[in-house]
Amino acid sequence: MLRKILSFSGFTLLSRLTGFLRDVMMAAVMGAGPLMDAFAIAFKLPNHFRAIFGEGAFNSAFVPAYSHVRAQGGEAAARSFADRLFTGMLLVQLIVLALALVFMGQLVSLLAPGFTDDPAQFAFTVTLTRITFPYLLFMTLVTLVTGELNASDRYAAGAFAPVLLNLAMIGGLALAFLFPTSAHAVAWAVTVSGALQLALVMADAKRAGLFPRLRRFVWDSQMSRFFRTLGPAIIGSAGVQIAMFADTIIATLLPAGAVSSIYFADRIYQLPIGIIGIAVGTVIMTEMSRRLAAGDEAGAHRAQNRAMALTLVAAAPFACAFLVIPTLIMEALFARGAFTAANAAAAGQVLAAYAVGLPAIVLIRSAVSSFYGRRDTMTPLIASLSAVAVNVVLKILLTSHFGAPGLAMATSVGAWVNLGLLVLLASRRGWMGADSYFIKTVFCVALATLALAVAAWALEPHAARVAELAPRWRKETHLGLLGAAGAVIYAGALLMALRLSGVRFRGLR
């Protein structure tokens, strides 16, 4: 399992690194003003719907269902099941795209009501969103094909596909002089990247003998069971997206630049979520579905405990850094060109608020596997909607006092509520239980993270003085020195604590 996680994480890391380069270029070219705000909305709208109808809900229902059909009826039955779904999803997405293009003005006014007071900004945002919206169609199909590949232990193509989005957007920025604005250039690049990602996973599916074919959609017991599972999963994913919609809606009512602050902080915050949380969650979903289908309950529990322990080991230093040095991170990564030091400080405050919920966010994907692996999507739905209710209420209460950081803090609290409910409900049913490896690892991670926080606080002024000696790239040098020292201190403290507690790292595998 560790090998699969590392393979997925490696490609995800490449995706995040190219995404970072993309965001650096976007910050330098577009800054954090109206141009970037408009593109952020245009990019978020198809992504919100993709998360609702695509990877979030679809994978959680498809991977266990596909594994079950293959275990019961063999490869031919699984292929027929996947092909019929591919045909149905293609038809649904074509209808959604047609309706969205016609009613785009109404969609944007719902998502960005603050822009309606500025007709030029509103019209610009609608134009960009019409350009980016076909991305949803491509990515829904990518999600389906990737789910089938994942169920067959093929992770590379699906994990590499987002790299094409970043490369296309970098190319769009480089060719921005050919477009009316740089925002137009990256909007077109988003849609082109969707076609490229679909071509990539389809090529891998063809090599694996899984190339999707158009088949007449037949409603049978397998399809009925799948859609009964998918329905609650869609509502559950929609619950999370409702909170994100609320972030965007409220941010457009704040002063100019709030949407951009959330966007750039979220890009850094998503780095550990993608590399760790989604990577581990994707692999553990397949692993638990396979083990549970075979009746191996003990093996499923053991795999989940190891996955969640490994998740905390990898995510804790990110959360610590985002809390202790958020402004330095944003200055070193983005403060150049049109992106000012004031923009970096504002985004840093948002990043620190997001950091509070990072451990919960990365663990949720592994926690829901207790339910999705047993084809129970209703319980995660209840947990998700309960967390969203808390989240949205807190957004309304906190934003009036704290602005964009208040939105991020509400998201963090909602994540902890969601995780807590999942763990409580799964434990009551005997579907989840912390073993000694997990408990000891949590204790060791807490000690190592405390050592890291103290070291970062103590070393920060010394690193700043050394960085001042550099002729250029002082902020980058400052962050690099702290990062290198922190990595050594965290790794050393963690290994020592694990050794003293009797936990062997290879046991986490």
Compact overview of the structure:
This protein is an all-alpha fold.
Give a short account of the largest sheet. none
Question: How many DSSP-defined strands?
Answer: 0
| Structural class computed from helices and strand pairing | mainly alpha
Percentage of residues in strands: under 5%
Q: End-to-end span in angstroms?
A: 7 Å
Arithmetic mean of pLDDT? 83
Low-confidence stretches: none
CA radius of gyration: 22 Å
Features:
509 residues; mainly alpha; 19 helices; globular
Commentary on this structure:
The chain is mostly helical. The chain has helices spanning 2-30, 34-53, 55-102, 104-111, 119-132, 134-151, 156-174, 182-207, 221-252, 258-293, 297-324, 326-334, 341-355, 358-367, 369-372, 378-402, 404-428, 436-467, 474-501. Helix content is 84%, strand content 0%. The longest helix has 48 residues, at 55-102. It is globular. The mean pLDDT is 83.
Q: What secondary-structure arrangement, pairings included, does this model have?
A:
Blueprint: H1 2-30, H2 34-53, H3 55-102, H4 104-111, H5 119-132, H6 134-151, H7 156-174, H8 182-207, H9 221-252, H10 258-293, H11 297-324, H12 326-334, H13 341-355, H14 358-367, H15 369-372, H16 378-402, H17 404-428, H18 436-467, H19 474-501
Helix pairs in contact: 1-7, 1-10, 2-3, 2-5, 2-6, 2-8, 2-9, 2-10, 3-6, 3-9, 3-10, 4-5, 5-8, 6-8, 7-8, 9-16, 9-17, 10-11, 10-13, 10-14, 11-13, 11-14, 11-18, 12-13, 12-19, 13-17, 14-17, 16-17, 18-19
